[in-house]
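This part of the workshop introduces the protein records we will be handling. An example says more than a description, so a record of this kind follows.
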Amino acid sequence: MTLSPPRLSRSVYPRKIPSIAFAIGGLTSFIIFASLLLLSHPLGSSLTGYLYGTETTQHLEFHHSSSRHTSDPNPSPDSTVNSPPLLTQHREESTEALPTNHVSVEKEDPVETECDLFRGNWFYDPKGPLYTNNSCPLLTQMQNCQGNGRPDKSYENWRWKPSQCDLPRFDAKKFLELMRGKTLAFIGDSVARNQMESMMCLLWQVETPVNRGNRKMQRWYFRSSSVMIARMWSSWLVHQFNEPFSFAPQGVTKLKLDQPDERIMEALPKFDVVVLSSGHWFAKQSVYILNDEIVGGQLWWPDKTKHAKVSNVEAFGISVETILKAVAKHPSYKGLTILRTWSPDHYEGGAWNTGGSCTGKEEPLSPGKLVKNGFTEVMYEQQAKGFQRAVEDDKVGNRSKKMKLMDITEAFGYRHDGHPGPYRSPDPKKITKRGPDGQPPPQDCLHWCMPGPVDTWNEMVLEIIRRDMEGGGSRP
């Protein structure tokens, strides 16, 4: 039997000339399109992951809190209460080149033109800090951890690295040159003082300033550049008084949440850059007044049958909105305003006066081990909302461009190692170990050792000022 070749359908082969021309034209169009696509998204970019199904995966993590705030914030004016954990989003990334202990927090924003300073990781820098406790005479003893006998030092070496760029080590000469003839003011509570002293220690290494302060305001003057560093104490950043008001008696602190601290408003024209921070004093006893009406109180509410309209957390958010709007609208202030977000504490197992402790913490928390503090979460959220309401206010307008949010809260949640803990004084007889019953000694897990993590805040301040004065842009 003779086999015949298989029959081929005419629809497949042979093709007519118009069909061949159409196929060639389609192939040419595909090649041109693919070439343009590769030029716009080279191999290795996110497009490659999209085409081949290897896009970086995203996952959600729950972080829980074990801290609890109470009423009296001394020695650190703070306390916390538990609340449900919030959900935070992270992106997975390679950690091969990073130290064993680091935290990486990514925030995806493909159209971002300026590097986000506040998403990144902590890495160990063997170079160490730019100053020591012995090279800075302006250092509150409670934050002088080495001088108070803390035996470990590695907490001084961890530095912050943004994911998309570098955050340079603090350059004192660069700072003084950028700020030539200008004044930077830190305004807030004792944590603001902590940051101001860090800035002074960093600058002191290149020049000894002249003290021009008084009872109302600390001021340090650098002659070579005519730069002034100032600090104003303002516990709540809004108007406060002690006189009787409505059914609130004499002696209880009253806060007018819709009126800024008048001392700040009076001093503003003298400043060119202002760093605002507050919040921890909202755990203290106070009465909240809004539109000349008592709307709430912290650790004070005489009529338990009536419901307060405003909680201490909500009061904090209102106060942030109030001070930012007032600063932005001040007719004689055109400077840069930086709002530093909530500084997290690390009292584990209780509050400062109920057995809370950060004793023995010598390194940052490892990735995925962040213990979220419920009170920190809600206070940060209210602070961020207050900032957003202020910048979106129609009356603020273009001045919102001179208002910056320095978002340090999550990154510093990993730095439980950076507090004085029991090393709060030079007393050689102080207790630094847990007792036979397991109770920890009195300690400070709110403020920051110097040198230590707090110096990073001023690296961020310098970069924010540089971007503002040099026209923005990220460092590679």
The radius of gyration is 28 Å. The chain has a mean pLDDT of 82.
